[in-house]
Amino acid sequence: MGNLLLKKKFNRKAKVRVLYDAQVLEACLCKNNNDRRGIFFVVYNIFKELLRRPELEVAIYAGTDYDTYHRVKKVFSKGGIGITSKIFSGDVKDFDIFLSPRYFIFPGIKETGIICYTIIHDLIPMVCPLHNKDSVFFDIIKSLTLKDYIFAISDFTKSDIIRLLPQIDPHKITQISLAASANFYPCVDGTQNRQIRIKYGIPIGKRYLFTVSTIEPRKNLIFTLRNFIKFTEKNHIDDLVFVIAGCVCDDFEEFFDAEMASLGENSTKIIRIGYVEDGDLASLYSHAECCVFVSLYEGFGLPPLEAMQCGCPVITSNVTSLPEVVGDAGILIDPTNDEAMVAAYEKVYYDEKLRQELSQKGLKRAKNFSWKACVDTMVQEFKKHDFTQPKSSYIVSAPRPWKHLFKKFIFGISNEPKKTRMAIFCLEIFKIKREKQKKTFYIFGIPIFKKNYNHIGR
Fold first, then answer.
1. Distance between CA atoms of 20 and 100, rounded to whole angstroms?
2. How many domains does one find in the chain?
3. pLDDT tens per residue across span 307-320
4. Which of 109, 276, 407, 441 sits at 20 to 30 Å (Cα–Cα) from 333?
């Protein structure tokens, strides 16, 4: 009984020490990066909210790759993102939780006994494998066991995990809801919108529909655009264009371009503007007639939520996670039904009262989602654990320049047998010195191995 009381006291008052895998953040924080998709913003916003919590002590795990480590370090040392946190090197056993929002957790870390959480965003590479060859995803899936804890970003994703991943304990899956950034708001400044339209080549005198989406098969854009053209031809409409923001997947680009070419002159009604700067999105959503997002599969679906938070009416799919996000605040259709798609276009184009009603419903619905609520759920889960259990040691050292250069050297001489044999001999010497656990081993004044270092990089 005494031990139990001690554990409760410890869990209640001590800060929970969280080691956050921040390897994705570097990609997220690079300005105008075409690879910045929804997942990067999720990782960034969860991290910011975790840092605000006084009951947590959060440090960054930046990996053991030299390039990644130093890019992350550079981003945080500049202080331009308004948040700071310690970049971790040392013994993993000094932490209570290891949280990975994107990548698999290295086996050596798991073997310490630290409690490991992984955020699973969707199972798209399993459900839609043809155009989703995501090696990172399958590394995660292979690494998961019954001991792992999971955060699923929607009830739908949670049900998919239970259905498709039997190696995961269903009782260790917790559903969290994502949120849109505070950058999304009703932006009514007409002058600003005019400037943004000129910037991206959107005709000033025309109304427009808007979507933010990668151009890939599951996003269902060919279905969406074909029916947009049907709608405009049926109703003889020439004052409306369809604007697409987002990059195209390499494997799909040729096919998509061919489909657009088959539309002939009608293809001029479709405007692809590519990557859009963060500060321009609120205006583009706010002045659109509607956001159209009839995807076939989503783990959550941030674009409809972003649109609702800007007061933009939404047409979306009635499948996967999208009904969880939109509820009754948008027009939900079967994403394979042409007639339903054309009818939805007609509703939002002709019925101004409906657009205003959907705008107000969307604004109200969007208030149900926040990063605070998301992280509240995560922190509650963290606090359920007993952190008094002993853990084994696992030391992660900051990547050294010599190691990075040595790898490049080995790669460069791999076709020269004599030099390769010399390099292998040097590596064996390093290994012998390490096994003898010398306190410090120097090469040209650079400390290479320290006592008990059982991890120098992966």
1. 6
2. 3
3. 999 999 999 999 99
4. 276
